[in-house]
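Backbones bend. Our protein:
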Amino acid sequence: MNQNAPKFPDEPPLPSTWDARIARHLVRPLKNTRITPNHLTTLRLLIGLAGIACIACGGYAWTNWGALLVVISNFVDHTDGELARISGKSSKIGHFYDLASDALITVLLFVSFGMATAATGAAADAIGPVWRGTVAGLAVALIFFLRMRIESRVGKSGTKQASAGGFETEDVLYLLPLVTLTDGIGPFLAAASIGAPLFAVLVIIDYWRVMRRPQPVATTTDH
């Protein structure tokens, strides 16, 4: 017996990130059930919206509970994709639903940061924290849209995130409780309102380059 043989040979290789690997383990019992990836996407969406509502209320306790829910939502976001991979229940509609949920949660999260900062009464600048949150959120929405367009053009390899040590760029959301526990929502929002638009500019440039790249011409054979 080959000791190096995969434990589940009928499944695709394990993902490279730790949270996705844990998600694969947790959803494996759902493989042959009526639970679909869209059910898990809906669960992620509801948990995320609940967390955003808590953060928007402001106050130390509410923002910390909200951050915890957002972290849980971010983890659950991996379960739908893993269930789709091992069960063959993937669909274009489900993929779009997942992307739309990701975009909605991320945009509203930044807006809730602005609402939480405004609730403290600590912001006295002319722009206002809610406006900064909206700017950051819209920049993130643009990033999501352009990445989706790039993916439709060149495949998922064109939007693959940087990863190291089993973690990806988006995993920074797992550090959100540190922001709320240290009352750092205000400074975090200020940085995001500058950083997100700048990153959006880079994605726009990348999108422009991809769209200018000539598409390979499909070859046909005569029968």
